[in-house]
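Q: What does the assembly look like in three dimensions?
Context provided by user:
Components: two
Sequences:
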Amino acid sequence: MKIFVTGGAGFIGSHIVDYLIGRGDDVVIYDNFCTGQEIFIKHHFDNQRFTLIKDDVLNFNALKKAMKDSDFVFHIAGHADVRGGYTDHDIDLKQNFMATQNVLEAMHQLNIKNIAFSSTSSVYGDAILHPTPESYPFEPTSLYGAAKANSENYIYTYAHYYDWNAYIFRFVSWIGERYTHGCIFDFMKKLKADSSHLYMLSDGTPKKSSLYVKDGVNAIFTIIEKSSEKINIYNLGHEEVTTIKNIADIVCDELGLKKVQYTFEGGDKGWMGDNKFVHLSIDKLKQLGWEPTVNIEEGIRRTVRYLKESSFLLNAR
Amino acid sequence: MKIFVTGGAGFIGSHIVDYLIGRGDDVVIYDNFCTGQEIFIKHHFDNQRFTLIKDDVLNFNALKKAMKDSDFVFHIAGHADVRGGYTDHDIDLKQNFMATQNVLEAMHQLNIKNIAFSSTSSVYGDAILHPTPESYPFEPTSLYGAAKANSENYIYTYAHYYDWNAYIFRFVSWIGERYTHGCIFDFMKKLKADSSHLYMLSDGTPKKSSLYVKDGVNAIFTIIEKSSEKINIYNLGHEEVTTIKNIADIVCDELGLKKVQYTFEGGDKGWMGDNKFVHLSIDKLKQLGWEPTVNIEEGIRRTVRYLKESSFLLNAR
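A: Here is the predicted structure of the complete assembly.
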């Protein structure tokens, strides 16, 4: 199979590419390197089955040309900064919705009938049901969540119109090797500048799940291989949750910092649009036989160790 | 209050305008007259409280200028041809989603904090739960439904970000005076050309609710006056459903045509993206004290009588 991966040089995309190359597929990465990193994929550069195209999903003609003859599209590219949409109302519209519309339209014009899409727990917003099942309606409290939900709506319709197989994954935060953004990243950057003090955006109480990247990739391919609907929507999460303060404690401990003073700058949400409790039901996914193998604390520790060894990432942003 | 009504010269919009003018509000209609009709609103032309602006919601600068100093926005403008989105993938994106995004952005920039929006039962697609409650997730089978659902996502987020009051109405088909499109319209147009024969797009079995326009307008203002959440999402429908064949029977009977031969050209859906069973739960709305006063058959008969007296509409399209 020839697989097309938008955002294939990014954190999650590059792990998907590793899996696909390992499985023996031909893989085309399409990435604008806005947050993607050459170092995440350069071990494939000598592989004849690997092609890298540096361009933007919003460039429709380039996208369509690159996608030609593909059998399956992983649309993983996106703007992952949930906070930014509050001050910039255009960025999620373009990067997270219009980009998806371009992908769908290119697929339709090229008669490609398989898509996998990285959606988000943010589509549920401040859900009042926990763990939140896939049947919960969209209540997005951020334009990030709204634009991802919009992409899901469009995927649903294109899949219905043209009899595609669609796989929609609603992710909690992913952690682990090649992690490039999120609160662990922010904490480590701040502690690098001042190891005695840590400022947090919230009061430390927001409680969320995280998923270790290799467990996440296994979940993706479990779903693709085992689910049988035309349109398959799955939460990808963890039975555990952890508070932001607890994440900070684990980061400090893994860094060997014993006496960090915390300052809590906000309330029970870290920013406008943040959700104070994110816990997805993973019952549907577990029915396919999948279980997470790494607990959240161990996932956080692996992330910290990775970033310690990859200080170029902390320095770059 | 100064109320801004996009699509205020259209079928539903003009009835809302009548109600608002009757209540004593200042009303600004903003309409591109794509499907709006001057005849629906000209009885207000001498009213000092009435302003008409002919322009397009997609023209952001004109929209923002016209909306200035409004207290409440009814965003009723939209592209209502559900079928058309299958062959033209741009029209719903622009007319039903980007237009809404323009309205929201103009409201935000002008600090207007109240919005009512005409959504649709099509957001539920081929729901497997009937009557379908508001908590059912989006499963749109048409780009019309997807673009309306996208608008809802964006309204939800803007309302959350900026503490707005939002009223989202998911409509079944509306019928009654000033009806300008839909199957009754199509049947009458066909019967006008050949009163002995009626071709139907489906096998006649699709089963749907309809709502008489004056009951619908009463529902809208019942919700706005009585509901108490910041974001209020309501189905607007009817406890009755009727098949497409039954609608044809009533149309023919009301026209005095006794021996029309039916030809069923399709299957259990009239077109790609159509839904064979649309029946919304109206329990939430009934809890506010609202009930429909006109049954579906009577609503169809009134629609036929109106179109008989308004043959310019049948001739125009």
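Follow-up: Chain B touches chain A at residues 86, 89, 93, 97, 101, 105, 108, 125, 134-143, 145-147, 149-150, 152-154, 156-157, 160-161, 272-273 (CB under 8 Å).
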